[in-house]
Design a protein that fits this description.
2 copies of one chain form a homodimer. Chain A is of the alpha/beta class. Helices cover 48% and strands 17% of the residues of chain A. The two termini of chain A are 31 Å apart.
């Protein structure tokens, strides 16, 4: 992922993990949390939790506790979660369709506005999310000012879809196609290669 | 991911990427490839390709080329791809169901043998892959000597499913639940947190 030099990607990842842990603890009735709680829930030491928080100006009370609601509010503001997080998907195959309906994304405030397919007819009846022809993707992204795109098309089509998304104004892309996309430096790209993750695991299992 | 100290995880990831690139080039009719080709396809410099290969005893011909079939054979042997790569899935929700039918896993030689669900009735009719009750998972894994597990259950159930899988003999786990699993050091775990990837991207898009 490309980023400005000052931002520590690992710190942001931890902030997201803390936020998710706090959301779970809130559901369990927690009103206050301690850095030890968040360290335990995310697998880091408590001093790192406090250091990460203080980097973003979040301070606890004298006893080292944080008020859950206030902490969540501050983390959501830092992570830009107060705005509507709209995204589009290219490709409505197995993975794309699963993401369209994935509760895990809705829980985190993401709204998949539309999906785009080379053969959209077969999907429209089933889904709550509109599925349009891939040729209308650029216009839709421009018109609706979408900044996040998910690529779930076959490998051969991925680079072209990527280029079209960027041309239309997409700035962050989650790519499920198992290919190295050629991306300009100002575009953030995260690759999720499920088959490769399994291949890595398989290698380690065979070696152990 | 836990591993023995001598193995460089990044090198293994690159070997998998080279192998996938070679497979694509083979489909395009390539009989010979050069380290430059593989560097271009995977985004690394060609000297690193040659270094990675020589680390595993793979050598090219005098002109720096590699015969595609021989190279694929050697990489598949190193990566353990010559054996049947069986895996089970826990959780047949949106993500689990998508993975059951995901061509990208089959293309890489993975066979999803079965899925396990707390409510298996609703899935059996649709899928080619059997969906059993989660309570039969341990016995199935033991009986069929499965070593790879995929966790796609809700967050609250993930640790218990993980513990059961390990007890049954699973050694490598791909985890889609957005939670930090408590894992013994000999077990390889890869986490795929789709919502978190989008949250990271969103953060960078907001900052840029």
């Amino acid at each position: 992922m490309k980023t400005n030099a000052a931002t520590n990607i690992n710190c942001i990842i931890r902030l997201i993990q803390y936020k998710n842990a706090i959301q779970r603890l809130k559901k369990l009735g927690f009103i206050k949390v301690f850095s030890d709680n968040l360290g335990d829930a995310t697998g880091v030491i408590s001093t790192l939790v406090r250091k990460d928080f203080s980097m973003f100006g979040i301070t606890g009370n004298k006893k080292g506790g944080y008020i859950v609601d206030s902490l969540l509010e501050q983390l959501n503001r830092i992570l830009g979660k107060e705005e509507v997080q709209k995204a589009v998907i290219a490709g409505a195959g197995k993975i794309g369709t699963a993401l369209m309906e994935y509760q895990g994304l809705r829980n985190e405030g993401f709204e998949i506005c539309a999906a785009f397919e080379i053969n959209p007819q077969k999907f429209n009846s089933e889904s709550r999310i509109p599925v349009y022809h891939i040729e209308s993707m650029q216009e839709y992204i421009e018109k609706n000012v979408i900044r996040l795109g998910i690529i779930a098309v076959p490998t051969d089509a991925a680079q072209q879809v990527f280029d079209t998304m960027i041309l239309a104004g997409i700035r962050g892309i989650l790519n499920f196609a198992p290919i190295q996309l050629k991306a300009p430096p100002e575009i953030a790209v995260s690759n999720v290669n499920i088959a490769m993750e399994l291949e890595k695991l398989w290698y380690y299992v065979k070696m152990s």
